[in-house]
Amino acid sequence: MTKFVAPDVKNFVVWDYVVFAALFLISSGIGVYFAITEKKKASSKEFLVGGKQMTCGPVALSLTASFMSAVTVLGTPSEVYRYGATFILFFIAYTFVIIFTSELFLPVFYRSGITSTYEIFYTGVVVYAPALALNQVTKFDLWGSVFATGIVCTFYCTLGGLKAVVWTDVFQMIVMLAGFLTVLIQGSITNGGPTNILETAKNGSRLRIIDFDVDPLRRHTFWTIAVGGTFTWLGIYGVNQSTIQRCISCKSEKQAKLALYLNLLGLWVILVCAVFSGLVMYTHYKNCDPWTAGFISAPVQLMPYFVMDIFSTMPGLPGLFVACAFSGTLSTVAASINALATVTFEDFVKSCFPNLSENLNTWISKGLCIVFGVVCTSMAVAASLMGGVVQASLSIHGMCGGPMLGLFTLGIVFPCSNWKGAIGGLLTGIVLSFLVGIGAFIYPAPSSKALPLSLSTANCTVNTTEVLTTLVPTLPPLRPPLADSWYSLSYLYFSAVGCLTCIIVGLLISFVTGPQKGENIKPVLIRPICNLFCFWSKRCKRICWCGENDLHKDSATKSETDETLKNGVNKEMQNHLPGFNPHEKSYTNVSLDTESYF
């Protein structure tokens, strides 16, 4: 095996540490600020959902910062470097996801507060990824970095609650953009400008974006990203506690929707920055790939290695990039800690101990933040055993988020489903999605389905002083029959498998055991699918809703029927719901007199 001489890449200097430390200090300072200024409003509602007084601007930036984590900063450029710019097609998936979330799920969740808790596993990946980057560029102890991240997140989340999390996310979003822009500007200057970068990427087959192959075993095609990516990210956005909690913290349903659509712009910007960073990195290393040459041990280390290379004479800027990676992590982890604390408090503590004082409720909420901070940090150990950070994170979301997405879709879109169908569908979806996910982890798909692009070491300096070792050829391990079919399914379809299985099995069980009747359903909590296909006939709607419209049939007059909204709730009913604005057809926090958009 050929050995190569690694170039001299500098480590952190004093100014890098200063820039990096500033991120932690400012983030912690925001937590301290809200702990002091909001002391008089110390209630569990204020701590966990910001008193429902947030506006769309900071919430939109917070959503973008939380879900464009270190997985995006480190993982997406390395994906583009190895597989090409097909990843840019995720802008289609993001668009569908935001539309479905804001128009289908948000109106229901804004009124009900339904939550999910699977994100604790994903948080482990998010903590581990930037710690690995810091270990690569500074030679810091890897696990010391992991625990430092967890401690800082837990600190400001526990002190300031959701408001501190949101406003810290705003600051961290600015840091992320600054980090990306410095890399893009310096990388473009070093490699001959954007024109040369795109030309080199084209010659290296990195710009072959559109591939309409319908084979579900192919890792990334137009269909796996547009369809599978939509299912995966809908599980992340549509039924994720971190997303819903931020939206619920908004003053009104209208502001919550605006936050989601503004967030879509942020997702597009970060995606473009990450993809172009991968193309810049490929241009720089097209003739001497540091991963193939053995200069780094994993593809996720490509981006920090590249940063230390191009900024070797610019002290402070490598620290800015690592701060960029850690910004995504701090925002995501803090969001998860706050969300998990909210779920546990609302669903377990308040249910078991409904008569606790408000002051004790607040202290319990803060205690839960500390507990989940420790748990989320510990999950990084499990993350270290998984593969590439992008595939690992999205696989976790797919396996766990798919069945949860199916469960909520079943209840919101199909009012005829009953509790037996919901439980049966959820369990079946979990079994199938975990079966394919674990099978894919044990028996990775063959390279013919992943199609990694070629990497060269032609211009790397060969080490002639070391003795070359000869690798003894070994037989490939035996693979079961499912390894090249079911277990080779693209990781982006894991969520679709769990979701569709849950819906189909749930409907079958519901019809076999007796569908749900309309008088047992609150119309404000559903968005029946029959509204899309039976809009011309109220009788068809009534049949598809399994009697749901019978709630209004006896008292309905012609004028009242004309005023019935698409989801089956008439204006008279909505006037009795707190915070309903009949002119905007949205819900507003009735304790506030004014409304602003930022």
TrEMBL record:
PROSITE patterns (UniProt xref): NA_SOLUT_SYMP_3
Major subcellular location class: membrane
InterPro entries named among the record's database cross-references: Na/Glc_symporter_sf, Na/solute_symporter, Sodium:Solute_Symporter_SSF
The entry's keywords: Cell membrane, Ion transport, Membrane, Sodium, Sodium transport, Transmembrane, Transmembrane helix, Transport
Superkingdom of the source species: Eukaryota
Membrane topology annotation: Multi-pass membrane protein
Bilayer-spanning residue ranges: 12-36, 56-75, 87-110, 117-134, 140-158, 170-189, 221-239, 260-285, 320-343, 363-382, 394-415, 421-443, 491-512
Gene Ontology terms for molecular function: lactate transmembrane transporter activity; symporter activity
Any one Gene Ontology BP term: sodium ion transport
Compartments in which it is found: Cell membrane
Record flagged with keyword Transmembrane: yes
UniProt GO cellular component terms: apical plasma membrane; extracellular exosome; nucleoplasm
Coiled coil (residue ranges): none
NCBIfam families linked: sss
Record family assignment: Belongs to the sodium:solute symporter (SSF) (TC 2.A.21) family.
Name this polypeptide is given: Solute carrier family 5 member 12
Native organism: Sphenodon punctatus (Tuatara)
Gene: SLC5A12
